[in-house]
User: Fold these one by one.
Assistant:
Number 1:
Amino acid sequence: MNTLTQQHKQDLHQLLQAFGLSGHTPLSNWIAGSARAGDGAAITLTDPVTGEALLDYNDAGAALVSQAVAGAQKGQAEWMKLSASERGRRMLQALSGLQGREEDLAKLESLVAGKPIRDCRAEVAKVREMFEYYAGWCDKQHGLVIPVPTSHLNYVHRVPYGVVGQITPWNAPMFTCAWQLAPAIAAGNAVVLKPSELTPFTSIVIAACLEKAGLPEGLINIVNGLGPTTGSALTGHQEIAKLVFVGSPGSGRLIAQAGAQRLVPTVLELGGKSANIIFEDACLDEAVAGAQAAIFGAAGQSCVAGSRLLVQESLLEAVCERLAKACPRIQVGLPSSPETQMGPLQNGRQHQHVSRMIRDAVNDGATIVTGGGLPQGLPTEAQSGYFVAPTVLRNVTPSMEIAQEEVFGPVVVVMPFTDEQHAISLANSTRFGLAGAVWTQNVARGHRVARQLRVGTVWVNSYKSISVMSPFGGFGESGYGRSSGTEGLQEYTLPQSIWVETAEKASIAMGYGSGD
Ligand code: NAD
């Protein structure tokens, strides 16, 4: 075992201890207010920096999922005994549980997910922001009074589903966890959340810290394990009233099928193949910097990654030249270093997938502008890790796999377009529809093009800005339903219409006699 792995094992052990999660085997579940170990098969976590084994924990399995759901039912009943304002106050109060633990939480995420520490610190701050935002909504979810044409008072109010099942991926575990937890509980639900088996711990820490500081026991439950075992026990559980899934389109189909089987609704937040469009009237310095931020942030393991760079023909050479110079300057290195801008990919399977896609693209005729292999300057001990250099490919045609399929790694294809209509049709030519961007100094063009992109989020002269206040979600195979904003909140309630007869004699209004 190399010394970096040894160090990381030690750091992980200390962090789990600090968060009360170390036991005979790691306590990898948070169920009805207690940390519990799983008792299913062992799951091995691998160090993204070295590719060596880091830690084993046990799959939760169906029995623990059932206990989590039972705990959630009790937690939800307690939660709904509180007034809406009190629920909002408790959500804010719960944040005190994270106070002073932010740095450890960021380190834990960085260690297991392989993400640069500076990104993890920013994501901890986002967790706070999400709870603060939705805490404010607890007592502002007003109903409606409908002026029905009868003598009834008809009003509509919103009812929580009860217990919601959430499933999240490995690329931004604590961000995605808070992104879904906060609106779900603000709307009055309890949650059983299954993080990716590859990044099990930060979601538990968030749940445990928040519950201990003010939320009812059982309101948030975290179960860890594989999709086909723990995941399908959750999606198939008869008391789960709604499923919210963030992950790949392939698994999304399975979740939607599981929901359809029991006739429960699903929200799917899936992958993307987002187009980042640079027009010849763009500010080139900004656009080239934006193109790098769009794809190389999180080593491209971002659902909104700008993985297709569409460039107006006249700028193609200039953009490729600039990227060829800029990309080797990106700081690729150890996630624990504060200077690191890009770390490794999170896991070996993803590393193989990304490497295979680059190889096949080149075999299909693409040319490498920069990158394509291991980055320069890595410490020897990290050379067996899951690093891929920032990679730019050109001579890619729209029908090639690399232009159509999600890479989910630091790989961007540069493709030329002739005019506005050509750019729009290229941008809309994949089955995905998550995000996109337009770089232009012509404000009318910015708006015009943005509105013709069939995607859930468009940036103009920017990339990747995201806020809990604004709705997020996909078109096409990027999924359906929305997270965040008021739309995200609405996903967690059902409207209930109540009719109260105000006529003196309801029997007359209904047209039947009383039988007396
Ligand atoms: P994945 O689909 O392999 O796994 C996601 C989650 O689903 C994991 O927790 C996994 O254990 C679980 N799962 C898998 N099979 C299951 C089953 N049969 N039943 C229940 N659960 C099951 O995805 P991933 O590789 O972890 O994440 C990468 C993908 O996530 C990419 O496609 C990325 O674009 C997408 N993503 C989307 C968003 C978004 O908001 N749209 C955000 C982040 C990531």
Number 2:
Amino acid sequence: MPRIAPRIAGDEALDEAFAILRDGGLVAVPTETVYGLASRADSDEAVAAIYRAKGRPLFNPLIVHVANFAAAQRLAETDERAEALAAKLWPGPLTMVLPLRAGASIVPAVTAGLATVALRCPAHPLMRALLECCPFPLAAPSANRSGAISPTEPAHVAASLGSTVPLILDGGACATGLESTIVALRGECQWQILRPGPIERERIVAILGAGNEILEPASAIEAPGQLTSHYAPAKPLRLDAEEAAPDEFLIGFGAIGGQVTLSAAGDVGEAASRLYRCLHEADASPLARIAVAPVPEGGIGAAINDRLRRAAA
Ligand code: AMP
Ligand code: MG
């Protein structure tokens, strides 16, 4: 059967995107982190279509995207900690896990039946424009088959999901390029980072204080995005490579060159924005294996190394 390619269009397609979502369909959307696969979060059928398109296990909950903090307050129980985080870091690549509000217009499939909901207010102007038109919240995991490399360009979405998504809103290459930092607010004062990301731990400590941080790793059942193998290319991946074996595609960093480089200048921000593009290129190359040069841990380097370890697992 011929595979029909999804339509890729810019802000001229906003009305069309809204109409598809309103009617329970899927639209791939740009965010500053990675491309998302959006559906309305208040419809069982619409949310089921996301899990089906991604081949995502039903126990892995979805992040809900909102236009502003007021919209978040309609879906979750917020307190002054959530307010402080939102005031400083929204819109932006921070997801908060909060108690689900009774009667919130979120179907149980979104939270995988948990009593909490993960909320994010994205910064990308096109996604913000879409959220402004939508009177319903949008569930949106990354727009790729489950477990595979995240998409940072429309072409990555089209290659991974094909015609299962009719429309990809084209917002260019993702500026940040790594999934959001996820922080869970627990009880009265405790908090925990469930996934490292573009917002560094230090910035959250500056707002919530270090004293109440839970440092143990989150349980796999509660945060399945923390699965050991995730964000993975199809080929074996070797970390901390100084040079390539003959059958390896080397992804360089700094002084270590390669077929491609995360950042020749050794800039971790640039490396984050290029990580998934480089992994996609490595996966598509004729070479059988992938090797990646060492990336320092500082700043967003911690999140890059988290993703690389999961990609190699
Ligand atoms: P993705 O949309 O692929 O970036 O993955 C979203 C991730 O958010 C999930 O895999 C979970 O780790 C996390 N998440 C979403 N909702 C919750 C929740 N209610 N509690 C804890 N983690 C969540
Ligand atoms: Mg994902």
Number 3:
Amino acid sequence: MLVVQKYGGTSVADADRIRHVAGRVVKRVRAGDQVVVVVSAMGNTTDELIDLALSITPEPDPRELDILLSTGEQMSIALVAMALRALGQDAVGLTGQQAGIYTRANYGSGRIARVEAERIKFELAAGRVPIIAGFQGVTDEQEIVTLGRGASDTTAVALAIALGADRCENCKDVEGVYTADPRLVPTARRLADITYEEMLELATQGSQVMHNRAVELASVYGIPVLVTSSMVDAPGTLIHGDPEQMEERNRVRGIAHDTDVAKITVRGVPDKPGIAADIFEPLAAAGVSVDTIVQNASERDLTDLTFTISRKDLKRAESLMTGICSDVGAAGFAADGNLGKVSIVGVGIQTAQGYAARMFRSLSDHGINIEMISTSEIRLTCIIDAERVADAVRVLHDAFELERAE
Ligand code: ASP
Ligand code: MG
């Protein structure tokens, strides 16, 4: 089988781990599989490079910053390729450009436009293991662009699609996707499998297991992704789109949490067409991305509107709100920067009875106040105090009996 294996920063954090990864790849190749490897930068290299740039200037030029950040993954490909050769396995490190990964859009947030995979195929045919730098590509003008934090996962899925691989394997320092973060819930259980939809919701709602764009891409092309350990031999969690299994299901599969939530409430907003656009357009223009939005039914033509954003964007958003309020004729605004969210996810939970009630009751039984609620077809999310997020995850894991085998 042809497989694309991705190893994250923790899995290649030092020389020993790199040798260990090389050993696993060699074993796989000797077992008869064709392997293409995608790697992230070692450990915290990307953070360190960003800090280094910030120590030169508070606003590094985005183009030069991308050139700098792309070197993190380049270190990894060279070292992993060396480690493979040291084990007697021919291998070749390829930068995003050499691997034919073409991107569009902006520095720091590029999107993969296409993969010209001839070079990779050539190396494979010659018996060499291609080791590809994740998180980077080039524009048609050969400008280096990075793909956004954590986006090596996306590189791996895009390559699996371009190569027609049998599957993508995301090799991590955890053994798969769990019912909740095992660091918070000791009884959290590894899931044998999960659907794209469920994984996408978990990833978007704060689960760190896989980059949400990678899941989205895998889902569009129907490429199976196995999340598994880079350290030990483990069965992992298969992410797939098997509709039959989805119909069977009617329960909570996992809990995601995120402690990075801030909230802004705009009071006394005139209830007329165009107001919401007037509020959100300036925020979007300033690069503030808005998550949950709740608008109350209006009384006497005035309404309150509440929305959440990432805490890191709060200062920027607040600085715009005074102007926005006077532009739309709102009474004023209030901000709270210390919130988090907890979500239950599972295909079928919206159509089934009682999930919402059980979630709200369990939280209230433990004195956890719900500030906002949002839902999708397969998710229920409560915005709560950041300090209570860990408790809430444990409470809900118990309430929905997620420790029990399916
Ligand atoms: N090295 C990049 C980051 O830390 C990409 C990745 O790890 O996926 O964001
Ligand atoms: Mg990283």
Number 4:
Amino acid sequence: MCESAGESEKTTPGLGAPGLSLQKRRSFLVALLGVGSVLVGGLLSVPLIRFALFPLLRRTTELEMSPVGTLNEFSRLKEPMMRTIQIEQVDGWRKAISEKAIYITKDAQGQLRVLTSVCPHLGCTVPWNKERNEFICPCHGAIYASDGTRISGPSLRGMDTLETSVRDGQLFVRFQYFRQLVADKEVIG
Ligand code: FES
């Protein structure tokens, strides 16, 4: 009885070696599967992360050309004409449509010129004064000629011109914002 018990004790280490090796193989496979899953998961998540961060990485505001009217409407302009255009602004996931006032006028050579109504001093809306034949800003008194050229007042430059294009007889304009309180026109959005 004692001998058979002794034999049984001797065989235990002999049986344990293959068991341990199997366990190691299993651990290795589990680790391999884990690493593989992390790698595949990482690769698959790249497009998702880019998709989620897109609104943050994209430029805040991107404005398309807005229609102003036909060229015929402005062919006999004698003084600046105010128009309201619709602009679509994209801010992250948010899309907003707003209205902006612009002036269609002519330069010294009689060419059409489109001005933003935003005063380059501190951003007030500049109205056209028919009696005075000038733009006069109600906030701090800046005065501009009919083509937007600065005449007097605290503004360091004239009214800002907007980029235009003509397609099929239609005038289009790109509304933009410009830095205030500086002498040179600088787009900020
Ligand atoms: Fe127009 Fe100051 S905002 S003069």
